[in-house]
Amino acid sequence: MFDGTRKFAITDDSDKEMKRILTAVYDALREKGYNPINQIVGYILSEDPTYITNHNNARSLIRRIDRDELLQELVRHYLND
After folding, report:
1. What is the pTM of this model?
2. Is residue 1 part of a domain?
3. Which of 27, 29, 50, 79 could potentially form a cystine with 36 if both were Cys, beta carbons 3.0 to 4.6 Å apart?
């Protein structure tokens, strides 16, 4: 019976790819003089790609990450660490 609860499963490979992408985006934002944490949070909350610079193809990279999966992974890491 389906109770309406969504369940997510992230494989180790997608977790590594997500980390690689976030690190690259973070580095590109920092290189351009932005506060990377604030810009990434702005993007996550709004899904507005203009929060992310085009420098080093960061804007294109961040759009490869599913926002729901990213949020799930962030909450899981925060609560487990």
Report:
1. 0.80
2. no
3. 29
Are the C-beta atoms of 74 and 65 separated by less than 8 Å?
A: no
Q: What is the number of domains present in the chain?
A: 1
Residue 71 lies in a domain: yes
- CA separation for the pair 73, 69 (Å, rounded): 6
- Rounded to whole angstroms, the Cα distance separating 71 from 44 reads 8
DSSP string, the chain: ---S-------HHHHHHHHHHHHHHHHHHHHTT--HHHHHHHHHHH--GGGS--GGGHHHHHTTS-HHHHHHHHHHHHHH-
Residue range(s) defining the domain that contains residue 19 = 12-80
Least confident piece of the model among 11-15, 21-25, 50-54, 64-68: 11-15
